[in-house]
Amino acid sequence: MPRTGRRPGTTDTRERIVAVARGLFGERGLDGVSVRAVASEAGVDPALVHHYFGTKQRLFVAAMELPFDVQRMIPILLTGPPEETGLRLAQIFLSIWEDPVTRAPLLGILRSAVTDPGAAEMVREFVLTHIVGPIVAALGTSDPDLRVTLIGSQVIGLALGRYILKIEPLASVSRETIVAALAPTLQRYLMDPLDLP
Amino acid sequence: MPRTGRRPGTTDTRERIVAVARGLFGERGLDGVSVRAVASEAGVDPALVHHYFGTKQRLFVAAMELPFDVQRMIPILLTGPPEETGLRLAQIFLSIWEDPVTRAPLLGILRSAVTDPGAAEMVREFVLTHIVGPIVAALGTSDPDLRVTLIGSQVIGLALGRYILKIEPLASVSRETIVAALAPTLQRYLMDPLDLP
User: Fold this and answer.
1) What pTM was computed for the model?
2) For residue A132, what pLDDT band results from cuts at 50, 70 and 90?
3) Which of A157, A165, A185 shows the shortest C-beta gap to B124?
4) Rounded-to-integer distance, Cα A96 and Cα A94, Å
5) ω into residue B82 within 30 of 0, thus cis?
6) I need a labelling partner for A155 at 20 to 30 A (CA). Which of A172, A189, B78, B182 fits?
7) Which of A67-81, A96-110, A139-153, B158-172 has the lowest mean pLDDT?
8) Chain B contact set for A156 (CB, 8 A)
């Protein structure tokens, strides 16, 4: 008898599997999680996970759906004084990274991508299509692709130092301190001349 | 009969084990390498590895010895126009990261620290004592600890994007382009007012 009255095969079940997978990938990365473990924690048969997602890699991609909408970030970024665009971007990033609910899947993606070339390839595709693409399209500056990846390098490095390596004082200073420290860096990467050779 | 005339227990053998371990940790991270695998590739008995290093974690620490000397970087950093300190630091970092020989152990450290809390703890200790400490001592600015960890966040994020995730165009632009893009960021983190709240 189904525990909650749900029938296997409903959208509900699929979403439950994705939610469980997101949590487990977040804690252990792609390599540290088996389809069996996800099925067990979701209370379904492993065959059902395979039915929905085929492979663990495709389950990972489904779980990787970002818990925020990049398209909705763009107008926020572009509204207000241009010289405070970096500040607004820093605030948006920190609002995502400081919330444990949205941070967990991002940390899972990061952990997996660092250790698994297949996951790195998926993350690369995903970042380019869903994050770099829309932001580049919204920017009117030279070298938009390079700018967005420079921003990515600073934000990912911050996440690594603050939430994974927990290096002090980076790990325990206030969110406002991080925003203030990062805003001019992001502003320069977004809009200032890069003076490239 | 020993293959090379070396006797087990010589400094030579110990260094060979460390070199092999550095290579394997660099490719696969702490979790992906066994003492047995290191011993096998070094052509020694696993018991000898345990004799020298005790545990895999201590072997990791030995292999983690950075392939450059932070103390020697300090005078280079402090010699020349102060407003070009960020540029010199960017050049030093890139000279280390662009050389496959010095890059390999750093990537190994990074991969291990991201996925293994024990390795993260060791890296944290190591970074604080051997990198942050000397640089902080050489800086005469406010918030030196925060400044050094901000620099670390940018440099680690760059390494992740360029050498591990290989996100374009960050992965394939010239070393000089990266130096030019990073120098003002590092300069600000090193010396400019941070305007913290």
Assistant:
1) 0.76
2) low
3) A165
4) 5
5) no
6) B78
7) A67-81
8) 157, 160-161
Token pair listed for A40: 């067990």
Q: Nearest residue of B to residue A172 by CA position?
A: B146
Structure tokens at B51: 């004799």
ipTM of the complex: 0.75
For an interface test with A, the pick among B64, B97, B109, B114 (most A C-beta atoms closer than 10 Å) comes out as B114
DSSP letters for A12-71: HHHHHHHHHHHHHHHHHTTTT--HHHHHHHHTS-HHHHHHHHSSHHHHHHHHTS-SS-HH
Instruction: State whether residue B2 is helix, strand or coil.
Output: coil
Contact state of B157 with A162 under an 8 Å Cβ cutoff: no
Structure tokens at A153: 């390098």
Structure tokens belonging to residue B77? 């950093």
B153, B169, B194: residue with CB nearest A158: B153
DSSP character for A116?
A: -
Write out pLDDT tens, residues B127-175.
666 666 777 777 777 888 899 889 989 998 999 999 988 888 999 999 9
Helix (H) or strand (E) holding B40: helix B35-42
Q: Which residues of B touch A32 (CB under 8 A)?
A: 115
- Give the closest of B157, B170, B189 to A160, CB-based: B157
Distances (CA, A) of B8 to B15, B46, B61, B152, B157: 11, 12, 21, 39, 41
Q: What is the pLDDT of residues A13-63, one digit of tens each?
A: 888 998 898 888 777 777 788 999 999 999 999 999 999 988 887 888 777
The per-residue DSSP string of B91-144 comes to HHHHHHHSSHHHHHHHHHHHHHHHH-HHHHHHHHHHIIIIIIHHHHHH--SSSH
Task: Count CB neighbours of B137 within 10 A.
Answer: 10
